[in-house]
TrEMBL record:
The gene is SPTB2. The lineage of its organism: Eukaryota, Metazoa, Chordata, Craniata, Vertebrata. This is SPTB2. GO terms for molecular function: actin binding. It comes from Poeciliopsis prolifica. It comes from the Eukaryota. The keyword tRNA processing does not apply. Residues 146-173 form a coiled coil. Keywords: Actin-binding, Coiled coil, Repeat.
């Protein structure tokens, strides 16, 4: 019961905190309507993701009532109170969306198109880069940046879809225009056109990492061999029984090391065939000048 009451208290405090945000109609830190819209979208997504919190408390409450019937009155009261608070929060959030944005759909639509277009231009510039890393460390850093870009693209994909909905809503209300919809179509086409270069850059970075990793592994193997070569090529055969036995023991140890290391060498040799293919593709797609590039 105490755990249930504590969970109810924590959710109640969280709802009260979010209600203050939902009631704030200014978003003073946002510079334009589009920025305000994005902040509000993120806020609504946060509410939706935390709906599971309320659902879990309701589930726990029902289980508690079944286990301890004497708590039914208190549990029902707490659940009802939380439900009312949650409904008020959702209602206030929807009202805020209507007050802030519904009356300015056309302006929001135009700003959203401009913001997306600017971002896509920046993305295009990043994808034009022919720097795929000079070593394993740098290419791994670039792959992390690539992952961030791809995550941003997923977010922007939702914005593109939202633009389609806004365009339909404006048309139904008679507030749409061919010029505005033309901007949306242009942004959508620009977005779709960058998906292939985005994937190609990831493929090139992955190929670059494979090559650098292979080169590092080969260097490690060369070092491993060089460290053991003096013992393997030594002409010292011992001057007495004790030294001969010691050399025999060292030789046996070396043979075991070589035998145990053989799978590693085999792996390098197998990968060398694969890396040769990567090098050929890399040479054709990356290293050779692209005469078709503007």
């Amino acid at each position: 019961l105490q755990k249930f009451l504590q969970d109810c208290q924590e959710l109640s405090l969280w709802i009260n905190e979010k209600m203050l945000t939902a009631q704030d109609m200014t978003y003073d830190e946002a510079r334009n309507l589009h920025s305000k819209w994005l902040k509000h979208q993120a806020f609504m997504a946060e509410l939706q993701s935390n709906k599971e919190w309320l659902d879990k408390i309701e589930k726990d409450g029902k289980a508690l009532m079944a286990e301890k019937p004497e708590t039914e009155a208190m549990v029902k009261e707490k659940l009802a109170s939380l439900k009312v608070m949650w409904d008020d929060l959702e209602s206030t959030t929807q009202t805020k969306a209507k007050c802030l944005f519904d009356a300015n759909k056309a302006e929001l639509f135009t700003q959203s198109c401009a913001d997306l277009d600017k971002w896509l231009t920046g993305l295009d510039g990043q994808l034009q880069s022919d720097d795929f890393g000079k070593d394993l460390t740098s290419v791994n850093i670039m792959l992390k940046k690539q992952q961030m870009l791809e995550s941003q693209v997923e977010v922007r994909q939702k914005e593109v879809e939202e633009l389609q909905k806004q365009s339909q809503a404006l048309s139904q209300e008679g507030k749409g225009s061919d010029e505005a919809d033309g901007k949306r179509i242009s942004v959508e086409n620009k977005f779709q056109a960058l998906l292939a270069p985005l994937k190609m850059r990831r493929d090139n970075l992955m190929a670059s990492r494979e090559i650098h990793q292979f080169n590092r592994d080969v260097e490690d193997e060369i070092l491993w061999v060089e460290e053991r070569l003096p013992l393997a090529t030594s002409t010292d055969h011992g001057h007495n029984l004790q030294t001969v036995q010691l050399l025999i023991k060292k030789n046996q140890t070396l043979q075991k090391e070589i035998q145990g290391h053989q799978p590693r060498i085999n792996d390098i040799m197998e990968r060398s065939q694969f890396e040769e293919g990567i090098h050929l593709v890399w040479h054709k797609t990356v290293l050779l000048p692209d005469h078709n590039r503007p």
